[in-house]
Amino acid sequence: MITSHLRRPDGTLVSPVSEEAMRQALASGEGLLWIDLEAASEAEASILSDVFQFHHLAIEDCFNTHVDPAKIDDYGDYLFLIAQAISSVDGGERLETTELDLYLGRNYVVSFHSQPLPFVQEIRLRCEKNGLDMARGADFLAHSLLDQLVDDFQPIVEQLDEQLEHVEEQVLAEPHASFLEEILLLKRNVQRLRRTLIPQRDMVNRIARGEFPKLVREESYLYFRDIYDHVVRVAELVESVRDLADGVLNSYLSAINNRMNEVMKTLSVVASILLPLTFIASIYGMNFQHMPELTWRYGYFLALAAMLAVALGLAMFFRLRRWF
Amino acid sequence: MITSHLRRPDGTLVSPVSEEAMRQALASGEGLLWIDLEAASEAEASILSDVFQFHHLAIEDCFNTHVDPAKIDDYGDYLFLIAQAISSVDGGERLETTELDLYLGRNYVVSFHSQPLPFVQEIRLRCEKNGLDMARGADFLAHSLLDQLVDDFQPIVEQLDEQLEHVEEQVLAEPHASFLEEILLLKRNVQRLRRTLIPQRDMVNRIARGEFPKLVREESYLYFRDIYDHVVRVAELVESVRDLADGVLNSYLSAINNRMNEVMKTLSVVASILLPLTFIASIYGMNFQHMPELTWRYGYFLALAAMLAVALGLAMFFRLRRWF
Amino acid sequence: MITSHLRRPDGTLVSPVSEEAMRQALASGEGLLWIDLEAASEAEASILSDVFQFHHLAIEDCFNTHVDPAKIDDYGDYLFLIAQAISSVDGGERLETTELDLYLGRNYVVSFHSQPLPFVQEIRLRCEKNGLDMARGADFLAHSLLDQLVDDFQPIVEQLDEQLEHVEEQVLAEPHASFLEEILLLKRNVQRLRRTLIPQRDMVNRIARGEFPKLVREESYLYFRDIYDHVVRVAELVESVRDLADGVLNSYLSAINNRMNEVMKTLSVVASILLPLTFIASIYGMNFQHMPELTWRYGYFLALAAMLAVALGLAMFFRLRRWF
Amino acid sequence: MITSHLRRPDGTLVSPVSEEAMRQALASGEGLLWIDLEAASEAEASILSDVFQFHHLAIEDCFNTHVDPAKIDDYGDYLFLIAQAISSVDGGERLETTELDLYLGRNYVVSFHSQPLPFVQEIRLRCEKNGLDMARGADFLAHSLLDQLVDDFQPIVEQLDEQLEHVEEQVLAEPHASFLEEILLLKRNVQRLRRTLIPQRDMVNRIARGEFPKLVREESYLYFRDIYDHVVRVAELVESVRDLADGVLNSYLSAINNRMNEVMKTLSVVASILLPLTFIASIYGMNFQHMPELTWRYGYFLALAAMLAVALGLAMFFRLRRWF
Amino acid sequence: MITSHLRRPDGTLVSPVSEEAMRQALASGEGLLWIDLEAASEAEASILSDVFQFHHLAIEDCFNTHVDPAKIDDYGDYLFLIAQAISSVDGGERLETTELDLYLGRNYVVSFHSQPLPFVQEIRLRCEKNGLDMARGADFLAHSLLDQLVDDFQPIVEQLDEQLEHVEEQVLAEPHASFLEEILLLKRNVQRLRRTLIPQRDMVNRIARGEFPKLVREESYLYFRDIYDHVVRVAELVESVRDLADGVLNSYLSAINNRMNEVMKTLSVVASILLPLTFIASIYGMNFQHMPELTWRYGYFLALAAMLAVALGLAMFFRLRRWF
Fold this sequence. Notes:
alpha+beta, homopentamer, 11 helices
């Protein structure tokens, strides 16, 4: 699906834009053209090569189905950017990345994504309403898209953080074997977020540092620097979530271990007390003909008393060693 | 709440400063103006844009509620700094960071924080008393604020160190499951401190290296270098606390394990000695009609003697293997 | 085995190429010559020194039997590259690397490998069909070879990923000691892949950055940058597989541990309940002459009831502590 | 306590030096002045500001009681260095660092330390004897001080190494819980040494690289490079001690574990053999009226034989599984 | 022991060389002089200072008994290199490093080592036979020495690799406590190799990059680059051996753990089955006067049947849970 907008030099907005008008805008270098390709068919995407005449390597990067780490390539007349948007699916259980490809020219932005991206839709509406995002040039429009994309990371990390804190509480209340899988899954998600963020940060930093003066104006550097700060902040959050995950894993393993210790200690105390008692009883269960104690009047009660004494002695011994 | 001070070129101090006087000071570039906004309402904060005409990105960074890592942005006529002050709450159990935002111009400093910061109050009093901090220029005033902010880290790290040493002593005396949570919490606090410090260090280093010659004079580099040294020293302390935390965690886990070993060894010794004895007793508890030993005159005593021999033999065996 | 192709300036393709024609092509600097040496004997390889007059160090690197990390050496008139192709043997159990050595001159490419490489064969066929790979110059031909070589990594990493996910499922269903070896083997394979990739990435990056302008034309940089992106993507995948491997290892160890805990808990519960019961029974198995309970009419049933009470009490106690 | 030496241009040595003579030497720039302040009172230290007019930040760094990481500050006319000397106290149990502060001017060295340092004393004696260290200029004297300071690290690291090897031997002979604390303490000491060394290395490297050509002459670079090599060698040693410490920790944990395994195996074997035997005995201890075996002539001996058979069978089974 | 060779400009080889001839060669700068000092006495080594007039710091580095990390120092007229040769003693159990010090001048090489080095001997013989190594200049001779030194690492690493694989096989067949020490020793050796290699690599790289154009000719860079490649390859091998060592350690720990689990499971199954049986038997071993079952005709057999039923039931339960 193609959506196209053209902001004419006089400030009026045209949508959709005919191929003819696109070529004209490209030729004149005036106005601002924004083409958004969402889950575009190869036929629809043909304007990438036909109208815009982008390099076939940049076009192939749009169509391959791999998850490409974020990058930025300078093709002279235009920049080609790959960014990864993130969204949580299945109620936050799984993280999904959607690739957003951007071609940034002097007076045009072409965005390409195989899945619908809510924030692109939002910016489109904003443009149609007041045209502000498009009034400030192609680099500012690209900035708006990347800014929104990066902003989506914050709530996801915060959600991971909350999930982990929730798991931690439950783990401390009652360590269950099922938590391990959840903790490991959360840890893996955190790792993945981290690896998605790092190249994104570097890409934005390259723009903010002014590496592409031909296509990004100096007055826009601050805006990209702002995105950079956001990525850094999110990365910082991710690190602290990772610490939390390690802590929860430690708590879990230790809780499991504590419970095991408790079980073993109980067994040890019970066995260590009862084995001697049973031994005493079994002595007087022997059938020797000559066992003087058996004929004593209070033999039985003496035996019981002896057992009680042994039991109490052992219990005190264990108590002293703080085994229970 | 806004507090404003103006040190006139003649050395007199005016407070509060009217908006009119502010504009005049900014226009003339003479004297030194210090505006402190504490938990300011948006209305109060409007002077940031109206009077000082700061960039809206820098203003937004003050008002967002995220924890921003320390940074420094060069806006040409002024620098925008974010620093993180630290304080311990709940009797040292929890660390809290408060963001201090600074705008440093040629003859003004604007400080912005959402929470009251004791050291800002202190510097304010010092200024009012002798005006020394304000007599040496805007960069020196900014240095004073950052210096105090960094100085607050030292006691916090030392407190963490003491807490850990206290926990360690208790762990070695008696390892209790409850310590684990405390150790993990302390470790997390240490990690957090570390991550708060690193960008702070880099920010101060950039100033000390003379990256902003327009707004920070060469004679002030040494002072920022001094702050840098403090941050490095605190970071060094944090590392050693982290080592300590790892050591305490190891001690704890090992102490728990030792106790478990002791319990298991006792059980093993008791069971290994008593099971054979009980077995011997149960043999003579059998009801076979033809059991010669049962009729022996000293059968019973021989049986007891045999048991004693077995018990002593086993005890010696275990002793030899140093099991108890 | 030597295969040789010469694309004449007029676009015709000659194969095989006589030594005479090779020398002529080298002397004239026209056309494009591709010599592929597969498991070449020293005699066959003599053209390296005789015809092409490569440096003996570069030739020795082809013939040594060690696994050389990827590298690129600039000999002025030609570049010498070592790359490592990968293939999985024994049904994916073992990874095997095959060294591909490339000499890249202005109008020739000499490829050398001790094992047949399917992708070299494929490019050869492609050249013979339409000559496209050879029509665009020596650097493009070298790019084609490296591109295919790198593309072979992706399916291997994906296969490792699948194997790990398969193992993980099985581990969660039933942790078997045999899995450990498999997990450790997979981990080692991942490590090895990683170490094979990193120097490859650096080598390609050096070309893409334009370090060798004499032999790689500027218009080819993009193509090498494309390979670079692929290597980065694969390396990213490898990292995530490594995380997965660590997770599976953790799951395995934890599952083993859980099973052990379950066994120990069952033993503890059984022993802790039955030892007291047996003790009671053994009391009334004593042969004292004066044991009042023995003569009671319902003594036996009272004893059984007492046992039942003890058993239920203990069971409830363990239940409360959630031991089963 | 102040010690002062002045080597006059004619080679004669004066000690102590009057404040008047100091000022003269500073003004003329001739001769070499060495002032050593050991545990100096503020009154004594006043010459730092009065005579030498050092920057108050550098003076404050001398008097603060924190452990400052090694650093070097360039104040134009003089360098200010902080180095950390090390010594072991309590028979090698504890490492203590003493700060040595150096001011290095064109023709003077001022050393400041709060504790007596044996090597400073030694160099002083050497100077008084033959004056060689002072004959070669201020930078060479500073080099001598730092060289001796660094040389003190080597025996300390070697001592740690020996202690660890001693502990390792004991651990392998008999793992005792008390070793853990010792190993962890040694590990912590190693970490600390490492963190003390790294900034020291960087500081010396900056001088050796010629960053301070105004105060350190080119012919002295080699000498500082020599100190640098020593620090690198010691750092290398520290790394290998750290490996050793990790190895000993592993040995210890594994030895503890092995012992536990041995205990558990013995218990398991004893219990697994004796429980069946006791069960057989208890069968024939039942009081049923109709138990044919009880009346058999050789019933008792058959029962004993059965027990023996079971015991031997189980023992063989365990032997086969190599449990003992 | 001093060995000296002089290759005269006319290609003839003189050995030994008189001190007079040495001085002449140094003065003329013609021919190539190679002096090898093996375990030289201080008297023999006096030519270092007397004839060659090397800097005393460089000479001291030869005589100190510490293990110096590899380095290269530029003394203007000559380079001073320290390299570490490796050899395995005690049948491969222990690795020993021997320091090789090289002075590389324009037309001389002085090698110094405290232990005999086989490869130095070998190169000496080669020189005497055909003089090739000496025919190509001082830098090439130094290259030959370093090349051989580095080549000795490969078989050592391969031997470590084989030892580890051997240990791994044995560990999987039967984990014995004694293996741990061996694995830890191998790991430590690997670490040490790694730390010996890294500075060596950096040293060679500095030469190969052309940092010393005065003493190493451009045509020799390739040869040093070749050594560099070898070091990188060996370092790569070392990394993979380290992975293997970690894997073997994991296998060992896991095998020990598995065995323990097996032992505990057997104990648990035996105890859990026999305790209930013994309990049943002990019930009917009680001496109550009124126990109806005792008088039943088939009481005994019913009891035995009950026991069998309980045993089978429990065995099935454990089987179901896959405990054996």
